[in-house]
Amino acid sequence: MAVFEVVLVNRTPAITGAPTLTVVNRLVVDTISYTEELNRPGTATLSCPVQSLSSDIKARLVDLAANPSEVWIYADSTLAWAGEIQTLQIQGQTVNLNCVGLLGYTFRMGVIADLTYSATDQFTIAAGLINQWQAQTYANYGIDTSTVGTSGVVRDRVYLRNELHNVGQRLAELGAVLDGFDIKVNPATRKLVLTYPVSGTDLSASVFLDERNIDSASIAVSVAPADLVSDVAATGTATTTGGANTTLYSARSTSSVQTSYGRSWDSTTFDGVSVQATLDGHADAYLQARSKQLLQPGLTIVARVGSNVGDFHAGDTISYSYDAGLGLQTTTLRVAKLTVSVDSAGKQRLQVEVA
User: Fold this and answer.
1) CA–CA dist 300, 66 (Å, integer)
2) Alpha-carbon distance 100 to 203, whole Å?
3) pTM for the full predicted model
């Protein structure tokens, strides 16, 4: 099983350029729980005995605004997770640190000037949203966009300052359309990693979740109106560079659900969409995600050879074969969320949620 080590890191903002990152000291932890989440920052929760905290760590934790700090979690000397401490609580003689992954810094960024992209590669747009913020004084969080390439998919986007765009939200929306991309920040290099069409590796021939490693399991199946959709009506709302409000409409359908289940209608709205093809792409992606019954197995597995920490990650495709009570269900699943937990006795568990 993996051996874990956690360190506290000081982040000092710079007037220009990346912040200075300095290791303060090792953190002695009772329990660790960290999450890799597809296209989201992920979180970590650490519980530490107060008496184990060194004086330099206490001096930072006493004021998180004056002393911005990150935790870096190593698994067998590999930096597995990194993010900033956002909240802490002290209960008795234990301090609980609640942290958000490096991608979470983008939710502290805003669009500060009108941005217009015409027939621009979607990767260029994503990097541009981050760059226009990090170019300001004291605004760089060390997210490195220098190696971002191109996807071959071009889009039109308009982000007006007066619309109060949050960069993290716009990045999530930009990648969520049909022919979109996956996004993460590599914890070891802090590089922005954009992957088209999807990230991850097909590990269905090597990683198996079944009765040999599943510790507890539950499943949820749904064909509720919002979960199984054959026809969707979508609108897009935006403000043009001239200040005029525009509303677009898109009606999309999929015959596979119509013929097997019948027509099932739903509607949705996307803000900041002013191009018809973009709205159509949003609607198609919405339908694609709802084209079959929703199957959500909730899995807790024992860390073992073949299903250990580091063997698979969010975005990877793995094999699932289990009878939760209705009969054997065998399929391949794409990991949307992976949580690694280590208790005070050193017992390791992995919790898997699927896309």
Assistant:
1) 38
2) 27
3) 0.84
